[in-house]
Each structure stands twice: as structure tokens, then as C-alpha cells.
Amino acid sequence: MKIYYQIILLIFCNTLFIQANSTDSIVAQKHLKTITVSQIRNKNNTISISPDSLVQYGNSLNDILSFFPSLENDMEGNIRLRGSDKITFLINGKPTSFLGNYRSEIMIQLPASAIGEIKVNHIPDVSQQAEGSTGTIDLILKKSQQNIPSGQVYLGTANSDRYMAGAHFGTPLSPHWKFNAGIDYKREYRKRTFLNTITSRENNIVTNEQIQDNSAIAHPQTIVGSLGSELNRNKHTFKADFSFIQMWFDRIGNIHNTETKKEMKVIRDNEQANRQYSAATFYQYTHNDQISFFTDFNYRHTTYDENNDYQRNVLRPKPNLIQDKFFIDQKNDEYELSLAGKIGTFKTGYNTWITTSTNANQKEIYDNGFYAEAQEASFNMDLNRQIHSLFLQYEKQWQKWFIYAGIRGEYTHQSVYLAKDNNRIKQDYWNLFPAFQLSYNNQRSGHSWQLSYRQRINRPVFSELNPFLDQSDPQETIQGNPYLKPEISHNTALSYHYTNRTFTFTPTLFYRNKKQTIAQITQEDMVVTYKNLYHSQSAGAELGIYISPVKWMDIRINGTVYYDEIQADKKGNKRNDWAWNTNGIVSFRLTPTTTLQCNGNYISDLQTVQGKIESRYRIDTGIRQSILSGKGEVTLQINDWFGSVKEITVIDTPTLYKRTEKSRDNRTVWLGFAWNFNINKQNNKLNLTL
């Protein structure tokens, strides 16, 4: 199929249902399983989606994010927001190391069925952490919101031994006390191929040619659990939540590495496990509409373990068998405390976020009948980071006008300890983060607009700071940089929004300017490292159109186009290019109880510091049948109709050409069943706002 026909089909498959109510938001009826977007109003700048609103039972978090405006993602779980991958992910409103160092693996494994709502916020207010150059993506774990005992049980299965199951339950224990619990399990199948074509050059003369052919099969498994309680009594609100997420898999990889004068085959037995345990408490006292106070405390414990067993069979120039092992053991402890108060139109507060991380990498080589540690390739590294913040914000509503202004000051202390060198690298710095927003909202006419500015920061994650060679992946050696500086960004946007009962139209203009951009660089020796670039900037436009042309068909189309410019150093050498993407959903109500959806996205070529990521597209289809008088539902879902989910990355410099093609067995057919019990039909709505 030619690309032109694919794009036409993709645009046709971009829809969802919109229904207006008497307020300025648009409400989605849950039995239609839809997504909605409301008018711009006040300082609520989030775009929200409930995964339950889609016919997507078998999807991962990475799949669901492909439906959001402004977002670009790939099969590896890498996410870009308005062209930048510097995004902060939150779980239940809080940042976490769990979604830092190995975020991409979590994106493609975390089941969407465990998430109640996803919020994308381009311009968070100053009461929140300033982390995330282009904004935040908040994952709200699923919980029942009903005032009666209610919940859901679901099962699903797909080709290649894929399974999923889960249950969520909530109940009021008294008129003032609520309790929630949930558990989700998913077993996936992942067949991955990886082909590297590498040419090294010196003075325009080819010095080496290399082909790396890799294939691997794994069955990743994920468990997500949560417990929560909320007590509302007079002017007091208490909340307590506990959650855990565990992911693990064992895969066997086969790698064939051919060079001009060398050849080797590698068998890699790779085991990985990711875990996070989180506990949070919250208290709020509300004296009246003008005066309130709140405090919350969060603790998060995250671990990452990786075991590698290699058999390297050297074929040329001299046959040899090399056996070695490589182990990674990482632990993170995070403590976060917030105190804040509101008096009239002012809100002020204090926040501290302390992170302690330890990393131990050990390599062992087989020799004379036993494995011995290779001291030169083993290392330990510790990271301690403390962020202390004060903020003050002001907001005021004058009829149709709303103004918001705020300032956040952050002091950061960072210490990187390298045990092998007995070296401690410290950084201490202050930052001020101003914010401004002006909005106009005419509910009667349906018109609104908003002008906003935010300054944000992106601090390097643990793996970007590690200066020792990480050779756990035979395809790629990584070496971090402990002297990396934080990336500072200035974000400005102008948005317009029009809505009526059947139509919504939202164009946005945005501009982002970044200093000290943190970039990944592949060196001539094929070692991947990180450095601060001098300057980069992006400017673009977004357009969202939501329409219901007939009663049985609904359409949503989102598109983004932007210009990206990168300047690596003060000499003024620049790379620049245009990029664009579109995504959406088509919804057909075949009967009052049957919904058919077609989802798709297309992403153009994307510029990188040293080359580009080639264009890609994807189309999925799902159908949902309501049964048991609306209490149950059966879904059938087909992902990646054309087998188009692949990624091609090109690095092209005077001394290095590298083409990487990755593909995955992503064409799946999911069959799912869900039973919702004790649902109050009169309150059976999802209110999702922008």
C-alpha cells in the first residue's frame, strides 16, 4: 500500500464522540466509551483521558499515549511532547525514579487497564515540581469513585500466549470514609529484531564496516496493586495510599556481529526486574472558601536488577569462546514533604524532595573452570540529590477573565560519589521559575483563549550521570557524564478554543527555548554518551478538531507541526528541520450496545542531534459489545493491522554512519471480557477536561 493511501486511511480513522452538557465542559457517557475535551478555563491546563474510554483492553501505556495530541512515541517506549523527550512522568501526582532511568521499558509493559486516568499538562503551576522541560504526564492508578460498593473484574487473552486479568473494588465504610483496592496482572509476548549497519570513516575513507543482527524473545510480566482510604469529616480530609508495581522478564538474545576483519556470534541470557513500592499520606483543613491548609508526605522505594550471561563465539580472526556475566543492582529511596496554605487569592508553600540512589555493576569472566570478577569493568556509584522549594502564586477571576502569576524558587544540592576513584562530584545551584497566564472564557458563545508562559528545568537522571562504561548490552556501550548541568527551558503558548454541542475546534501556537540541552551523542568508537548542547529552540502549531457529523459517527483529528533548531556549540553550527504528526480515533455506534473504533497515528521524520528518526504509522481497530444489561462487555481488538510498528534511526556524521532498524511482533488480536458491578447508572459518566 502506498504511503498516500495509508495517510488517507489514517486520517479517516481519527475520531471520538463529543457531547456537550449545560456547563462549559463536555461529558463522555461511559457506555459509549469515549474521550472528551472541554473549554480552556481558569488554570486547568491538562488534557485527560481514561483508558477505559477506549476499546483497547490489551494495550500498554505506550499504546494509549499515542492517542494524545502533541505526543509522539515509538515501539521502544520513547515519548516526545511537542518534539522534546524531556518530560516528567508522575504516578498519582508525584515524580518517581521508577519512571526515570528505565522509563521506556515501563512504557511498553505497564498495562493500561491499571490506570484510571492519564493527564498531560504542558504548563503545570508553580505549586508543583518544576521538573520536566516540556511538562508532565500524570498516571492516576484506577480506583472506584462511586458512593456505593462498586468495581470491575476483567479477563483478556491474545495470540502468542498473552494474558491479562484484574479486579478493582471500592466501597464506603461509613458516610465519611471510603476504601479502594485494585490488582492487575499482564503477561506479554515480545519478539524483537534489531539490525545495525555501521560504517566508520576517516578523511572520507572507509576504515571499517560492521553489521549487527540481533533477535530476542521474551515474556514480560507485570503486576500492579493499590490500596487507598479517604476520610472526610467536617472541615478535615485525610487520605492514605499504598501502591506497588513489579515488572520482570527473562529473554534469550542471539547476536551476529560481522566486521571487515572480525566475526562473532553472541548468545545473551538477560533477566530484568523493576519494582516500586509507594506510600503516601495527605491531610487538608478547609476553614472556608478563602482559607485552607494542606500537607502531604510520600515515600517511594524503587529497585532495578539485571543479570546477563554471555557466550561469545569468536569466528574470526582467531576462533575462541568467551564466557562472561554482568550484573546491575540499583536502589532508589525518595522522600517528599509538602506544606501549603491558601488565603484568598494567594497560595504559598514549601516542598522538599530527597533522593538517594545506589548503583553496583559487576562483571565476571570465566577462566580456568570458574568465574572471577573483572575489577576493571566493575564499579559502584551513589547519587544524593536534595531539592528544597518555596513558591507563591496569585490567581483572580473577573467575570470572563482569569489571571494567574507565580514564582517558584528551588535550591538543589547534588552529590555523585564514584567509589572506584574515591571521588565525590558536587553541584549546588539556585533557580527561579516564573509563571504567568491570562485567560478569557465566554461560556455563552463557546469562545475562549489563553496566553501562558512557564520556565522549567530538566535534571539529568542516574544513568546519564554514570561515568563508567556500561557494557551490559552487547549492541551499545553507554558512558554517562557526572558533570552534566540541568537543562533550562522557557515555554510560551497561545491557545484558542471554540465549542458547541457537536463541534470543538482548538488551535495552539507554542514556542520553546532551551539552554544547556541534555543530548545523547554516539562517538566514533560507538560509545554512547551525554553532553550539554549550547542552545535549542522549537516553534510550532497544534490543531484539534472534534466533530459528530451524524448520530452514529464521531470524529477527532489532532495534528502538530513544528520547526526544531539545535545549536551544539558557541561556534554557531546548527541543525534544523520541520516535523509533523497526526493521530486520532473513529467511533461508529453500530447499535445502542455496539461500538466500533478505528485508531491511528502518523509521525514524520524527526531530527536528532546527529541524524534522524524515520517516519512511521500505525492503525488499530476494536469493537465492544455491551451485555448483561450494561453490566458486562466483550471486546475484540486488533493492533497494528499493517505490521508497521518499527523504528529506523540514522546517524550520519563525517566519521560515522549508523542505520538502526528495530521491529517487534506487535500485531496482536485481543479478546476481553469485563463485568462492572453495582454501578449507579445516573452517575455513570467520565468528566474529562482540558
TrEMBL record:
GO cellular component terms listed in the entry, alphabetical order: cell outer membrane
Does the record's keyword annotation contain Membrane?
A: yes
Q: Which Pfam families match?
A: OMP_b-brl_3
Q: Which UniProt keywords apply?
A: Cell outer membrane, Membrane, Receptor, Signal
* Species of provenance: Coprobacter fastidiosus NSB1 = JCM 33896
The signal peptide stretch is 1-20
Q: Which domain of life is it from?
A: Bacteria
| Name used for this protein in its record | Outer membrane receptor protein involved in Fe transport
- Pinpoint the Outer membrane protein beta-barrel domain residues: 292-675
Q: Which SUPFAM superfamilies match?
A: Porins (SSF56935)
Coiled-coil residues are none
Q: Tell where it localizes.
A: Cell outer membrane
